[in-house]
C-alpha cells in the first residue's frame, strides 16, 4: 500500500526508540484532570490527550518522532534526522506505509515493547484529505493532510491502574515527579466562564450561512445530491487567547462525548468533545462506525427534552437524513469487510451529546484478510455525517458553498497501534487554533426539506456544547 522507498521507512523505523521503561501505579481518582495537568506541564513540543472508550484517558508527549504528509510529499523525523519521499497524490498510502515499518520492526522483535498490541501513535487527518479520496484532488490544497506523533512518553489512566511507558528513565522520572505533585487548582482567571457574549459569538456569520443553506437546498432539488452537511466558521476575538487545557477540562465535565481530545500537534491546537467515531478497528480486525444524524436541543428541563426526543424520532426530515447516512455507512463498510459480516447493531437510538441529542446508529463488520485499518479509514473518511450523500457530490457542493477550507474540522483525531488497532474520533464540537487564530465551527445536515432558519438554529445548538465553556488566558 505504501508509496516511497521501503528502505526509507525501514531506516526511519530503526531510529525510533522503544518505550523501554514501563511502570504501573495506582489509579488516579480524576484521570481527566490528571491528563490535563500533564498536558499543561509542557513536557515536550507536542502532546495529545485522548479519551478512549470506557473512561480511559491517554496522555502522550514527544517532539522527536513524527510523520507528516501532504499531496506532494511525506516527511518523517526521528533521532534528529529527516526522511522524505514523494506521495504522488496518495498521501494516505504513503502515511500508512511509513507507519507499517514500525509494525515490521515490532514483528522482528527488535523493539522490545512491553505493551499489548504494539507501539502507539497519535495524530490527525485534515478534512481536505477527502478531496483526494473521493472528489477533486485540486481542492485538497497544499497544506499538511496527515500528521502523527510516536510519543517519547505515554501515560494510560484507567480505572484499575496508571501505566507509564517511556523511552528512558529520564522521561519516566519527569512524569513520576509530575504525578507526585499535589493537584493545584487552576488560576481564577481561567476558571471564569464566558457568561456574557456567548450568544453573540455563536451567532456570528449566521446570515451568510443561511444563504449557503438555501443554495445547497437548490442543488439538492436540482438532483445534484441527496444531502450535504454545510458548516460555518465562528472566529474568536483576536484580542483574547483561549486556554485550551482549561477549556477542555470545563467542557468535558459538561459534555457526554463518544471521545474527547486535547492536543498541540502538527501545527494545530484543539480541545474537543466528539459526538461520534469515524471508525474503530480492533487488533482482531473487527471494524465499527457510528453515524449520528438528526438533532434536537438538550437542556435542563427533562420534560422538554423528552418532548424534543419524541419530535426527533418522528420528524421525516431527520429520519430521512439519518437513514441515508446509515445506508452509505453500510456501503462503505462492505467495500472493505468480509461478505456477510456487515450488520447494523443499533439503529436510531437517541444519544445525549452535551447541548444536543442525536439519532445514532452503529454499523459493524470484519475486515477482509487483504485489507487493514487504513483501507477502512480510506473508505469511511471523512464521516458521512460531516459530508453528505453522495460523498463526492457533497464534497463538491461544500467546496462551492462553504467559507474556505475546513482544516481539522470534520476530519479526525486518532490513536492507533502497530498491532492493527485504530480509533478515530470525528472532529466536531471542538475549539481549534493555529498560529494566532482560534475558532469554533458547526454544521447541519441539509436536505430537500431543510429551511435556513432551522439549520442556523441547529448550528447554534451544537455550538452551545463548547462556547459556554471557553476559558481564556489571564494575559
Describe the structure.
The chain has helices at residues 6-14, 31-40, 91-107, 129-134, 169-180, 188-191, 198-203, 206-221, 244-254, 302-314, 316-334, 373-380, 391-401, 452-463, and strands at residues 21-25, 46-52, 56-62, 66-69, 73-78, 81-86, 120-125, 146-149, 153-157, 162-166, 227-235, 259-265, 268-274, 277-281, 286-289, 292-297, 343-353, 356-366, 388-389, 412-417, 422-426, 430-434, 437-446. By secondary structure, the protein is of the alpha+beta class. Strands 4, 5, 6, 7, 8, 14, 15, 16, 17, 18, 20 and 21 form a twelve-stranded antiparallel beta sheet that branches. Strands 1-10-9-3-2-12-13-22-23-11-19 form an eleven-stranded antiparallel beta sheet, sandwiched between helices. Strand 17 and strand 18 form a beta hairpin. The longest helix is centred in the C-terminal third of the chain and has 19 residues, at 316-334. The protein is globular and about 60 Å long.
Quick rundown:
The chain is 32% helix and 30% strand. The chain contains 14 helices and 23 strands. Helix 1 packs across helix 3 and helix 2 packs antiparallel against helix 9.
Strand and helix map with partners:
Elements: H1 6-14, E1 21-25, H2 31-40, E2 46-52, E3 56-62, E4 66-69, E5 73-78, E6 81-86, H3 91-107, E7 120-125, H4 129-134, E8 146-149, E9 153-157, E10 162-166, H5 169-180, H6 188-191, H7 198-203, H8 206-221, E11 227-235, H9 244-254, E12 259-265, E13 268-274, E14 277-281, E15 286-289, E16 292-297, H10 302-314, H11 316-334, E17 343-353, E18 356-366, H12 373-380, E19 388-389, H13 391-401, E20 412-417, E21 422-426, E22 430-434, E23 437-446, H14 452-463
Antiparallel strand pairs: 1-10, 2-3, 2-12, 3-9, 4-5, 4-8, 5-6, 7-8, 7-20, 9-10, 11-19, 11-23, 12-13, 13-22, 14-15, 14-21, 15-18, 16-18, 17-18, 20-21, 22-23
Helix pairs in contact: 1-3, 2-9, 8-14
